[in-house]
Design goal:
Blueprint lengths: L4 E4 L1 H9 L13 H7 L3 E6 L2 H9 L3 H11 L5 E5 L12 H14 L3 E4 L10 H9 L3 E7 L8 H13 L4 E6 L6 H12 L6 E5 L6 H10 L4 E4 L13 H8 L10 H16 L15 H4 L3 H13 L6 H14 L9 H15 L8 H7 L12 H8 L17 H7 L7 H9 L1 H13 L10 H6 L1 H5 L2 E6 L2 E13 L3 E8 L2 E8 L2 E4 L11 E4 L16 E2 L5 E6 L6 E2 L4 E7 L2 E6 L4 E6 L6 E2 L6 E5 L1
Parallel strand pairs: 1-2, 1-8, 2-3, 3-4, 4-5, 5-6, 6-7, 7-8
Antiparallel strand pairs: 9-10, 10-11, 11-12, 13-14, 15-22, 16-18, 16-21, 17-20, 18-19, 20-22
Length: about 625
């Protein structure tokens, strides 16, 4: 009997795709006994964006999460998503860090490592796969599926052959954006089955509405394992529903053997859990066929939505989605999956919000253009490369070949705070975030971001939802749409709106504020604060070319100049982190730094002058 095996993604990709990776460990553990008794081929429960989210937002130790899940799931293999030489960060790491991270992941509970490279540059997978095999674990080689003038089925079949040659135990087609169509799925699986002897696994997001049909055609063509997600976190930018696929295959030669009633009990649990995270719900949860053009993967769309919302620019999502394919073409058609999805997506946001393409170029795009992420699949736009990196040398070797061993250096940098090798690896993934996390843990001050209670959803309705309305004044009715917000100080804030389609800027000056406690019914006064009572740093607004500002809201991670320092036009003076990507901010004039109005760690916005330069 050609039984089909199932990997369920509810503990990782499901909530990453629909609620920005915010599910906490405490909401996973109670249902683990039921998940463990289903009989899944594996449960994807670690890797991807979960490590970042644990440290950045949830203030959880990701290694502790893994250990708790391993203990709670004694009978089910735990699977993780590993970004090859990028591991779980956004840069290439030295080989000694890669080997140590894989070994510790195995020691703490990972059984199956799905290893991929965003560029499909197999040179970036070799060390990871070797480390997985050395740890005695299952290595699954991933082919990142995409469509472009330089991607076709023979190309993917050749990748599969090389992955099998590296020692991979299975091959997965990683359709991270939901670009596969049913008949292409069948043709691709047949081609892979004709090329390799190892089992074929299919991972396909449901964004375009085609994934269930793709699974069926892939199964009929020889795929033996499929990725699905429990119905409480399935469909839309997530994946095909586990229960539905189990029902579809019942009574056929592809019977999964999984219990539909048990899966439905698990779904009932997760439906209640999901209500806790209403504030992180993606606005893009249904079928969106635009993905067939913009190719934005499921895990990215909810995070992109959330990040644009935080910047008051959610209304510009369509512009960003239209810009992403143009940036991708300029960069030589990389598949869009972490980190290239963030690299391309953040640059597209910058191009849209600044109003000028490549006026500001992120550090990661510059590194990409210099070959530091690997070989681009297609031809890179020479003009864009020239604008971004001028005449800098482009490398052609495996990027990690240029890196010296760095694990001892990283251990030294975090000595005293890192209590274990796992702590040092957390710092290695995200130095600034990791150090802060370990410092707060040592001080006993770890505090996760606030989860607003369900009743606050109704109470906060106008605050979170009212961004378009009509105002009647002196008998005239005006259509108002909020398009963005500027920096708030103690007494005032700038709002960017359109009035009957005409862009306007409104300055709101606070006379008094009413603070409503979470969960309090609408209109209840908890405390009245006079204007000026709250804290805040007032910075000058940019008014001349010597004022340096950021192109988009972010956090300062480095200030590269000091008062009195001479700079030349084009010199980097600040580094801003926005949407998990770093962006060097350059001066447009030559001169002398006369004032710095910000500090490392400050949250800043485009309407603030951060550094002042006296032009020559």
């Amino acid at each position: 009997m050609a039984r089909v095996f199932v990997t369920d993604l509810v503990l990782r990709d499901g909530h990453q795709s629909l609620i920005a990776t915010r599910m906490r460990t405490e909401d996973m553990l109670p249902v683990c006994p039921k998940l463990d008794s289903v009989g899944f081929w594996s449960l994807e429960a670690w890797g991807g964006a979960t490590f970042d989210a644990c440290v950045r937002f949830l203030k959880e130790d990701p290694w502790e999460r893994l250990r708790k899940l391993r203990k709670a799931l004694p009978n089910t293999p735990i699977q993780m998503l590993l970004r090859g030489q990028n591991l779980l960060g956004y840069r290439h790491y030295s080989d000694d860090v890669v080997r140590a991270f894989v070994q510790k992941s195995a020691d703490n509970g990972v059984d199956i490592f799905r290893v991929f490279d965003a560029m499909n540059d197999l040179r970036n997978l070799r060390v990871s796969i070797e480390a997985v095999k050395q740890a005695g674990k299952h290595a699954q080689g991933a082919i990142c599926y995409t469509t472009s003038p330089v991607h076709n089925i023979p190309h993917f079949a050749q990748l599969a052959k090389e992955l099998e040659g590296m020692g991979c135990d299975t091959i997965v087609i990683k359709d991270m954006a939901g670009l596969l169509t049913p008949y292409t799925s069948g043709e691709l699986v047949k081609a892979l089955k004709g090329t390799v002897a190892v089992p074929i696994h299919l991972h396909s997001h449901a964004t375009s509405g085609l994934s269930s049909m793709c699974h069926l055609k892939a199964i009929e063509s020889g795929a033996s394992i499929i990725d699905t997600c429990n119905s409480a976190f399935s469909e839309g930018a997530s994946h095909s529903t586990t229960e539905s696929m189990v029902a579809a295959l019942q009574g056929t030669e592809y019977e999964t053997g999984l219990s539909l009633p048990l899966l439905q009990e698990i779904a009932a649990y997760f439906r209640e859990v999901r209500k806790k995270y209403w504030q992180f719900e993606s606005a893009f949860t249904g079928v969106d066929t635009r993905v067939l053009v913009n190719q934005v993967p499921g895990g990215m769309i909810s995070n992109l939505s959330n990040q644009l919302k935080e910047q008051g620019a959610l209304d510009r999502m369509d512009e960003v989605l239209a810009e992403i394919p143009r940036v991708r073409e300029d960069l030589g058609y990389p598949p869009l999956v972490t980190p290239t999805s963030q690299i391309v997506g953040t640059q597209a946001v910058l191009n849209v919000l600044t109003g000028e393409r490549y006026k500001s170029v992120t550090t990661e795009v510059k590194h990409y253009l210099l070959g530091r992420y690997g070989q681009a699949p297609g031809q890179i736009n020479a003009q864009v490369r020239s604008m971004a990196v001028n005449n800098q040398v482009v490398i052609t070797c495996r990027p990690a070949d240029l890196l010296e061993d760095e694990l001892d250096k990283l251990r030294g940098e975090i000595e005293g705070l890192a209590k274990t090798e796992e702590d040092a690896l957390t710092y290695a993934m995200f130095p600034e975030l990791g150090r802060t996390f370990l410092q707060e843990r040592a001080a006993g001050t770890l505090k996760p971001e606030l989860l607003l209670p369900p009743e606050a959803k109704e109470a906060a309705g106008p605050r979170y939802a009212a961004n378009e309305f009509e105002i009647t004044l002196h008998g005239e009715t005006y259509h108002i749409k909020l398009t963005g917000t500027g920096h708030a100080d103690a007494t005032q804030r700038h709002f960017y709106v359109s009035v009957d389609g005409v862009p306007e800027e409104v300055l709101i000056e606070t006379i008094s504020e009413v603070e409503v406690a979470p969960g309090t019914s609408p209109g209840t006064r908890a405390k009245v604060a006079p204007a000026g009572a709250s804290g805040g740093t007032k910075r000058p607004r940019p008014s001349h070319p010597g004022h340096v500002s950021t192109a988009m809201p972010g956090t300062i991670v480095e200030i590269m100049v000091k008062p009195g320092q001479q700079v030349k036009a084009g010199d980097p003076v600040l580094v801003i982190e926005a949407m998990k990507m770093e962006n060097e901010v350059q001066t447009s004039v030559s001169g002398t730094v006369i004032a710095i109005h910000a500090a490392k760690g400050d949250a800043v916005t485009p309407d603030e002058a951060l550094i002042e330069i006296q032009p020559d």
